[in-house]
Structure formats: structure tokens, C-alpha cells
Amino acid sequence: MNQTINLYYQERGSGSPLVLLHGFPLDHTIWNPLLPFLTPRARVITPDLRGHGRSPAPQGSYSMGLIADDVAALLDRLQVERCVLAGHSMGGYAALAFARAYPGRLSALALVASHASADAPERAQGRLDEAEQVAQAGTAQLVDGMAGRLTADPDLVEPLRQIMARTPRQGVVGALQGMAAREDANDFLADLDLPVLLVAGDQDAIIPLERTRALAARLQRGRLVVVPGAGHMPMLENPQVVAQALLELITQ
Ligand code: MLT
Hints:
With 252 residues, the chain is an alpha/beta fold.
């Protein structure tokens, strides 16, 4: 483990440790609507990943393995040996990297509006070009482009835009570069002998439901929960359904 940073985090509730990793370029507050459902039964730990929220934004590319190392260092600090780990979108890519690097520390894994594939070469190049653009001109264009694609719920678009607008330029650049370089994890996940939950909104404009269905079909101990009417942010669009699915994972 090297170059890890001390992540900002919040911790609520008591019971089995449940660690929730937000997506790009968001922060831990996206999980807040789940807390009333989760905290009676779980110790819920919600970090801000490097470059996001109140965590530091060091220079360089944020590989998913490095983000996973930051999370492992946080768990060490909190004396959490094993947990259920859930990641939203990019947080899911990081959760997969964590599962690879620290298999003994997971009792179950959840991917919320996420998947296990690497970027196709043209997508990876697009991210690197975007990172260049953000480094030169700031995050406004990226934030405006993403805001409407995350959810179809008009009441959520502006709050999400505000979270993204607070993400520092270097955080966005580092995460884009790290996502562009991530490994494919489909075979790894198919072979994983752990309970795996996939949560997908049937209106997700970023990760199509068909892709998640195909992934679910390959899992040994997998379960797919489709959230009707939800887009890329099911934890905000239907928190109760997402929380219920996570609680079932804890009791497995
Ligand atoms: C996210 O929501 O974390 C990102 O949009 C995921 C991605 O760009 O692949």
C-alpha cells in the first residue's frame, strides 16, 4: 500500500460495517437518504474518495487500486477488519479493485449503477481528452453535461449539479485518468465466491440495464435488483428499495 491519503468520512449507526463509495464526481452525501433505513442495523461508513468532497485532492492519476488502498487505510484507522462494500458507478469500479486487492476484508459486494468492464479504447481516449479540457478550462462544461444525464427527476438535477460543481478540478482530472486506465473485472467478478448485489435503475442513461443484466447472468452468488423509474442515482431516486437490498446483503 503506498501514497494513501486520509479520507474524510462520516460514520453513523451501529451493527455490521457497511462501507458506501460514491461515484464521480460526487461525494458521500449521495448516500444520506439511505441512512434512516440502514443505521438501525449497520455501522454505515461513507468516505469522500480522493479528489472529492472534503478529502484531499493530490496531484496525479487516481487509479482504482489507489482509491481502494485509501479505503483500506480508512478501514485500518477505524479498526474494521471485514465489511460489506457497496460502490456507486466509479465507486463500484473502486470496490472491484478493493475486492481484488483485499479479498479477505469483504463479506459481500454491491455495485449500484455500476459495472465491471474496462473502457473501450475510444472511451478511454475520450476521458483523457476530457481530463485535458478540465485541466485547462475547469469543470463547468463537464458538470453541465453530466447533470441532466444522472437522473430524470427534475428535483434532483440541481442538487447534484451543486455537489459536482464543488469537486475540485484536480479531483475530476485524477478520477478521469484513473477510470480510463482501469482493468476489466468481468471474469474476476464472475469467479468471485461472495454474495454480489447489482442494483440498477431501469432508466439509467449512463449504464444501460441490459449491460447489468448480462453481468448478473454470469455471477455465482449474484442478485440483481432493478429499481423501476430510477436513472443513474437509485439511492436518491428510490432510497428505500436500495437500502432494503443492502440490508439483505448484510444478513446473508
Ligand atoms: C460515475 O457516475 O461514477 C461515472 O459516470 C462512471 C463512468 O463515467 O464510467
